[in-house]
Amino acid sequence: MSCGHPHEIDCRKVLDAVFLYLDGECDGAQKSLIRAHLDECSPCLREFGVEHEVKLLVARKCGGERAPESLRSSLLARLREARVEADATVAADPRD
Asked: Where is the Putative zinc-finger domain (predicted)?
């Protein structure tokens, strides 16, 4: 995904790291760069919001248990596929 505007961090890299950001697993500098990017890039912020809600839903339904790594990998793969489809839709929408 790219919003078409230059940023310090590429949109794709931000979205690839959003789960690390949500989990608090990135260092201070990376966290600041991601937050700054999300503050100025509305397409990424919309994507971040969707992924944040999915994460909250999973946490609520799993009672705080950590998902098995295989499930996490599968979900990440599916989210990436959905993002590719969404990117194609956004690229085809002349309003953005």
From this structure: 11-44
